[in-house]
Amino acid sequence: MKKFGKLMLSTMLACSLFGCTQKTGGAKDGEFSASEKGFGGDIKVTLKVSGGKVEDVTIDASKETPDKGGAAAEQLAKEIKEKQSPNVDAVSGSTISSEAIIKAAKSAFEQAGLKVEETAAKKGGDETVDTDVLVVGMGASGTLAALTASEAGAKVIGVDATDVLGGFGNAAQGMFAIGTDLQKERYGDHMQTNE
Known about the structure:
By secondary structure, this protein is α+β, with helices and mostly antiparallel strands. The chain has five helices and five strands, in the order αβββααβαβα. The chain has two domains: 82 residues, Sufe protein. Chain: A (Alpha-Beta Complex), CATH 3.90.1010; 55 residues, no CATH class. The chain is elongated, with a radius of gyration of 29 Å.
């Protein structure tokens, strides 16, 4: 009888321990939103969560410049959903909008009970590329330098920190041209001057 009592007591103790396990704050189903100040106004990020997974990401960046902050919102919505994480890279040329989107997304992830972990920056591999001319900075001058070298038959590679070429030249009111009749008239065929 004593053995039976000990066995019963051990079984009850084991069962009571299972009842004492602490629940972890798992993900909640539903829609979770957060807003942050962007470049042109507030940006709202909404996550649709189902079964612990982000099913959809909607970003309202209607107060942002459409081709900058608006384009960044579309790109980041896709990346956040694909990676199931708000830890994505900012879009070049839309840093303020991107940072607002990422911060709002982190807040929405936390509201949903989804774990937000900081991730280490990705390290790229080495690559060797042969070229005649390397143009670093594809603003107005860099773009024209690359074009001129390419027209002269050189193999050209141009790199820039942003995803939009032209720099401030994109805001210029006039056209850029090399070798126009006006230039040839003033500078001759070699376009050089002592002025």
